[in-house]
Design brief:
Length: 569
C-alpha cells in the first residue's frame, strides 16, 4: 500500500502514487546537493591542510566523518521514509546540511588550536553526512515507488543517477571557484566559501522539497526495529573507525583490535535480531533473490573501486601535484559531467537491455581507468596526460550508478522500495567510505615506510632533517610560529611533508634549502598512490567478473514488462 498527501496527488493507474515532475525536480536537487556535500572536501584538502595543519589521520577523518553516517544510517533512513513519509526525510536531510555547512563556515580561525578547529570541521561533516544519509535512500525510493513500467523506471533511475554524477562534478567546481574568492578569511581560510555554497543550495532544496514534492510511504510490514537499528549503526561505525584509525594507531594496537571485534560481534547480533524480528529493518530473505544479493556485493566492491580511483585522483592533483582547486575541478568534469551528457543513452540502455550487463560493461571501464591511471607518472603535471582514464572512469561511473540502482529496485516489489533503496545505499556508501580509508591507509603507510627507509639509510639526509626540526627553536621570535607550523606539518606524515617547500626565498632574494623531505615525500606519494590506482582497478574488474557470473537472462532481457501492474504494490 502506498500513502500520499492527498487523493489528488495520485495520477497513475488505479490511484497509485505516480512520480510527478515537481517531485522529480525536488529529488534531483536533493540528490545533487548530497553528492555536492560529499565531494566538496576532496578539492579543498590541500587548502585545509595548509590552513588547519591536520595530521594525515585527521585529514582522512575530515573526509570520512561525512561517509561514516552515510554508510551506517542508510538502512535506518530507508525504514523511516517508509513509515513516516519520504518527503519529511528529503526536507530534513537538506535542513541538516544547512546546519552542518553553517558550522563548517564557522570553524575558528588561527586563534584556536589545530585540534579544536579540526574537531569543529569533523562535527560539521558528521551533520552533513547524516543529512545525506537521509537523502540518498529516500530519493531513490521516491523514484522507485512512483514508476511502474520499464520505460518510466529506466528514465527515473537514469535521471536520479545523473543527478548523483552531476553533483560529483559540481562539488569540486564549487570548491574551485570558492577557493578563488580572496575576501572573507585570511591566508588559506577561503575554503570556507565552498561550504557557503553548499549552505545556499541546501536552503533552496529545503524550500523546493516543501513546496513541490509529494509525500509517499509504505508502512505495511515495516517497523522502526530498534535492535536492528542500533546493532547495524554501531557495528558499521566500529568497522569504519577501525579501518580509518588503523594506520594511525597501528593495526595491532588494542583499540583497533577491539574495534574490529566489536564490529564483528554487533553485525552478528544484527543478523540474529533481524532473523527474529516480526517486522525487521532488513528482510534477510531478500538475499535469497540471487540478482539482488549479487548486486549488493557488486555494489560494495564496485563503488569501493570507483572511490579509490576518484580519491586517488583528488590527492594526486591537489595534495601531491599542488594544483589549485579550480584547475583540479577540470578532472571532476569527466567524473561527473559525462553523466549529464550520457543521460539519454543511459535511459535507453536501461530500458532496452538487462541492467546487469550494462553494469558489467561499466565496471570494466572503471577498472581499465584505474590501471591506466597507475601508469601515468605523477611527474607529468599536464591534465591532458590523464584525460583518457578520466573519460573511461566518467563513462563507467555514469552507467554504474544507474544500473546498480536499476537492478536493486527492479528485483524487489514496490512496497519494498524503501528497503531496496536503503540496502543499495548502504552497500554503495559503505564502498564509498571504505575506498578512501583503505586507499589512504595503503598509500600513506607505504609512503611513510619509504620516507623512514630513506632517512635510516642516508646519514646526510637525516642530519638535514634534524637541523630542520631544530630550526624553530633557533629562529627569531617573530619567525618562530611559521617555522613551528612548517615543522609540525612535515612531522605529521607524508602529505604534510610534501606540502612544505624544499627551499624558501629570503627577503634579500637569496634562495636557501628548507624542507629536506619535500622531494622524498613527493616520490614516495607518487609510487604509493599508483599502487592505490592498481587496487581500485583490480577491484572494479573483480566486481565486473562477479556481475558476469551472476547475470541471468540475455543482454536484451529487461526486468520489467511494459505492463503497469507488473509490480505488486
Amino acid at each position: 500500500m502506498v500513502q500520499i498527501d492527498s487523493p489528488s496527488a495520485a495520477k497513475g493507474e488505479g490511484g497509485r502514487y505516480t512520480l510527478s515532475s515537481g517531485t522529480l525536480t525536488a529529488v534531483v536537487l536533493a540528490v545533487c546537493l548530497a553528492q555536492i556535500a560529499l565531494s566538496v572536501p576532496s578539492l579543498i584538502n590541500g587548502l585545509i591542510q595548509q590552513d588547519l595543519a591536520p595530521s594525515s589521520a585527521q585529514l582522512t577523518w575530515i573526509t570520512e566523518a561525512f561517509m561514516l553516517p552515510v554508510a551506517a544510517l542508510g538502512l535506518g533512513f530507508g525504514v523511516f521514509g517508509d513509515l513516516f513519509g519520504r518527503k519529511r526525510l528529503l526536507v530534513g536531510g537538506a535542513a541538516l546540511i544547512v546546519v552542518g555547512s553553517t558550522l563548517a563556515v564557522l570553524v575558528p580561525t588561527e586563534g584556536s588550536s589545530t585540534d579544536t578547529r579540526v574537531t569543529v570541521l569533523i562535527l560539521a561533516q558528521v551533520l552533513n553526512g547524516i543529512g545525506a544519509a537521509a537523502i540518498f535512500p529516500t530519493s531513490l525510493a521516491m523514484v522507485a515507488a512512483g514508476t511502474h513500467t520499464t520505460a518510466t523506471r529506466a528514465r527515473g533511475v537514469a535521471i536520479w543517477a545523473t543527478a548523483l554524477s552531476v553533483g560529483g562534478f559540481l562539488g569540486p567546481l564549487l570548491a574551485g571557484v570558492a577557493a578563488k574568492i580572496e575576501s572573507g578569511w585570511a591566508g588559506n581560510g577561503n575554503w570556507r566559501w565552498a561550504f557557503v555554497g553548499v549552505l545556499v543550495i541546501a536552503a533552496v532544496s529545503v524550500v523546493l522539497s516543501l513546496t513541490r514534492a509529494q509525500n509517499s510511504a509504505s508502512p505495511e510490514g515495516r517497523s522502526i526495529d530498534w535492535p536492528g537499528q542500533i546493532t547495524a549503526a554501531l557495528g558499521l561505525f566500529a568497522l569504519m573507525y577501525a579501518v580509518i584509525q588503523g594506520p594511525e594507531s597501528g593495526w595491532g594496537s588494542p583499540q583497533i583490535v577491539i574495534a574490529f571485534i566489536v564490529a564483528a560481534a554487533l553485525l552478528v547480533l544484527f543478523v540474529f535480531a533481524e532473523s527474529r524480528a516480526s517486522a525487521p529493518l532488513l528482510l534477510l530473505s531478500v538475499f535469497r533473490n540471487r540478482a539482488f544479493a549479487m548486486n549488493s556485493v557488486v555494489t560494495l566492491i564496485g563503488m569501493f573501486a570507483f572511490l579509490v580511483i576518484m580519491y586517488g585522483t583528488s590527492i594526486r592533483l591537489t595534495t601531491i601535484q599542488g594544483f589549485s582547486p579550480l584547475r583540479s575541478s577540470v578532472a571532476f568534469l569527466f567524473f561527473g559531467g559525462i553523466g549529464f551528457v550520457l543521460l539519454p543513452l543511459t535511459s535507453k540502455l536501461l530500458e532496452r537491455y538487462n541492467p546487469r550487463w550494462v553494469l558489467c560493461a561499466a565496471l570494466t571501464l572503471i577498472g581499465a581507468s584505474g590501471l591506466w591511471f597507475a601508469g601515468v607518472p605523477t611527474s607529468d603535471r599536464a591534465i591532458s596526460a590523464i584525460v583518457g582514464p578520466l573519460i573511461l572512469a566518467g563513462v563507467g561511473s555514469a552507467l554504474a550508478f544507474a544500473s546498480i540502482s536499476a537492478v536493486a529496485v527492479n528485483t524487489l516489489p514496490n512496497h519494498l522500495a524503501g528497503m531496496a533503496s536503503g540496502v543499495t545505499s548502504t552497500f554503495r556508501d559503505l564502498g564509498f567510505a571504505l575506498g578512501p580509508a583503505i586507499a589512504g591507509a595503503v598509500a600513506l603507510g607505504r609512503a611513510a615506510d619509504e620516507i623512514a627507509g630513506k632517512l635510516a639509510g642516508d646519514p646526510e639526509l637525516r642530519n638535514a632533517y634534524e637541523a630542520f626540526q631544530a630550526s624553530a627553536a633557533n629562529a627569531p621570535a617573530e619567525q618562530r610560529p611559521q617555522l613551528e607550523a612548517a615543522v609540525h606539518a612535515v612531522e605529521s606524515g607524508p602529505l604534510g611533508a610534501n606540502s612544505v617547500p624544499s627551499s624558501i626565498t629570503l627577503p634579500d632574494g637569496q634562495v636557501v634549502p628548507f624542507n629536506p623531505l619535500k622531494d622524498i615525500a613527493f616520490d614516495a606519494l607518487s609510487s604509493s598512490y599508483s599502487l592505490a590506482y592498481v587496487l581500485g582497478g583490480v577491484a572494479a574488474l573483480v566486481a565486473a567478473a562477479l556481475t558476469l557470473v551472476g547475470a541471468r537472462g540475455g543482454v536484451g532481457e529487461t526486468h520489467l514488462d511494459d505492463d503497469p501492474h507488473t509490480l505488486n504494490d
